Amino acid sequence: MGKRNRKSSINMMFTIALLAVFAMSALFVATIGTQVFQVTQENMEDNYETRTSLVYISEKVKQHIGHEVSLEKFEGSDVIKLTTTYDDQSYDTCIYEYKGQLMEATVKTGDPIDPKFGVAIMPVDDLTMKNDGNLYTFAIKTPNGTENQISVSLKG
Q1: Which of 107, 115, 139, 140 would staple 111 via disulfide (CB 3.0–4.6 Å)?
Q2: C-alpha to C-alpha distance for 41 and 22, rounded to whole angstroms
Q3: CA nearest to 123, candidates 100, 148, 139
Q4: Residues pairing with 148 in the sheet
Q5: 80 near 92, Cβ under 8 Å?
Q6: What is the 3-state secondary structure (H, E, C) of the chain?
Q7: Nearest of 87, 81, 85 to residue 61 by alpha carbon
Q8: Full pLDDT tens readout for the chain, 156 residues
């Protein structure tokens, strides 16, 4: 009977050890899966922010083809100024980065712009704008460090 108890104890220990290895493997796979999911989610959010910001600016500029479009510097930031006339009054729609946000403000042409009174569109860390004739290039850096750019031609 001593042999039988010893064999039974060995089988029980082997079963428990096998169960422990299985549990640790499952925990390891779940941890890796969670990390992959978080990285994927962060990348998707970053792509959404950069692409949405750039498409927003691009569409605003395209809506002003045939109207006055200019780039200016305001308090150290690049500003695109889109001028439109309604009922004999000119208005400037200004798009710029202010304190980590893509902002838009509309003022009467000639009125000063107060950057803090613009409407926050979405978070961006940096927005740079360049123009080469009729080609405008906008580059955005998101809070996570992703950079992307888009170019828009004013020739319709």
Answers
A1: 107
A2: 28
A3: 100
A4: 140
A5: no
A6: CHHHHHHHHHHHHHHHHHHHHHHHHHHHHHHHHHHHHHHHHHHHHHHHHHHHHHHHHHHHHHHCCCCEEEEEEECCEEEEEEEEEECCEEEEEEEEEECCEEEEEEEECCCCCCHHHCEEEEECCEEEEEEECCEEEEEEECCCCCEEEEEEECCC
A7: 81
A8: 566 777 788 888 889 999 999 999 999 999 998 999 888 888 787 777 778 889 999 999 988 887 888 888 887 888 999 998 888 899 999 999 998 889 999 999 988 888 888 999 988 888 899 988 888 999 988 777 778 889 988 875
Sheet holding 77-86, edge to edge: 68-74, 77-86, 89-98, 101-108, 119-123
In the block, residue with structure tokens 């950057």? 115
Q: Which amino acid is at 75?
A: E
Side chain identity at residue 133, one-letter code: G
Side chain identity at 93, as an amino acid letter? Answer: T
